[in-house]
Amino acid sequence: MLVAYEVSLDLIRSVRPIVEMLTARDKALADQLQRAATSVCLNVAEGSRRSKGDPRRFYSYASGSAMEVKAALDAAHAWGWVETAEAPLHLLDRLLGLLWGLTH
Length: 104
Hints:
By secondary structure, the protein is an all-alpha fold. It is built from four helices and no strands.
């Protein structure tokens, strides 16, 4: 499996406590964060099993979802609900770099 897939699983593990905490503050944002992180993983996996020019489309979807995770973390921070999200943001930087390489 691709390194991007493993990093996407690490991302889920790193945002899990944030999702749990956000559920008490903003259930919709917590749900959006959870769904976006899951989408990254699922699209990377699906793209890795596609052939010809098709994989790039799924990696592009994964990249969009990764940016959605970043936006959700930024919003949670802006609301003052998350002090820091250093680990997930570091993983997102790595993941976005890997996805850029897969789409270009």
